[in-house]
Amino acid sequence: MGDDSRSSKSVTGLRYLGCGLSFAALVAGGWWLGDLLDESRGWAPWGKLVGSFVGIAIGTWDLLRTSADIERSDKGHR
Known about the structure:
This protein has two helices and no strands. The protein has helices at residues 2-41, 46-76. Helix 1 (2-41) runs antiparallel to helix 2 (46-76). The chain is elongated, with a radius of gyration of 18 Å.
């Protein structure tokens, strides 16, 4: 019984780790796309700033949505 609980907590922890990595990837992706716009359109530094903020907004939305799904599925297993 103890090992099953520990395994479930490990899986939940890995799912939360995935949420954090996804958030970081979305912010970095927004910054990268903004950098491309800065180089191609000459908008420096506005492309990076707007891209970063869009990445943060989408990352936050995804983080909240995924965290709620994890919590919902974790309570269903108890």
